[in-house]
């Protein structure tokens, strides 16, 4: 069996205000949005990064989110990153700090209510 050639190209997000939401995520990830009318593309901020595409949402925001991003930071930096992201406009939801030996995380919501986590894994 050969190794897969599939990689993550971009995450697509519907937004009430795609340009504003792309600016939030750009500040979070270190990228710079490329705005084209009512859409915006945020290129990966480095070789380990990921792209994001923001497009207008048609209709109301779904009442339940089926998936979310888990972002990983180096061990010991989760709390400072959470504080930085809160200052950018995210909303704190909850912490999961003692349930698992291999990971701790904080769940947040972006300015439009999309959940995401900032996680850290202890050194082995």
From TrEMBL:
Record carries keyword Glycoprotein: no
Any Pfam family the entry gives: Glyoxalase_6
Keyword list, A-Z: Dioxygenase, Oxidoreductase
UniProt cross-references to InterPro entries, sorted A to Z: Glyas_Bleomycin-R_OHBP_Dase, Glyoxalase_6
Molecular functions (GO terms): dioxygenase activity
Lipoprotein keyword on record: no
Segments forming domain Glyoxalase-like: 11-118
Entry-linked Gene3D superfamilies: 2,3-Dihydroxybiphenyl 1,2-Dioxygenase, domain 1
PANTHER family xref list: CONSERVED PROTEIN (PTHR35908:SF1), HYPOTHETICAL FUSION PROTEIN (PTHR35908)
Full protein name: Glyoxalase/bleomycin resistance/dioxygenase family protein
Species in which this protein is naturally found: Arthrobacter psychrolactophilus
Taxonomic lineage from the root: Bacteria, Bacillati, Actinomycetota, Actinomycetes, Micrococcales
């Amino acid at each position: 069996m050969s190794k897969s050639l599939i990689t993550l190209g971009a995450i697509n997000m519907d937004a009430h205000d795609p340009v504003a939401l792309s600016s939030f995520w750009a500040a979070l990830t270190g990228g710079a949005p490329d705005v084209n009318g009512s859409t915006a593309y945020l290129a990966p901020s480095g070789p380990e990064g990921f792209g994001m595409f923001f497009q207008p949402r048609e209709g109301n925001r779904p009442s339940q989110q089926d998936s979310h991003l888990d972002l990983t930071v180096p061990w010991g930096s989760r709390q400072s990153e959470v504080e930085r992201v809160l200052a950018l406009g995210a909303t704190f939801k909850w912490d999961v700090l003692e349930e698992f030996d291999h990971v701790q995380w904080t769940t947040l919501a972006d300015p439009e209510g999309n959940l995401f986590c900032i996680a850290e894994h202890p050194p082995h």
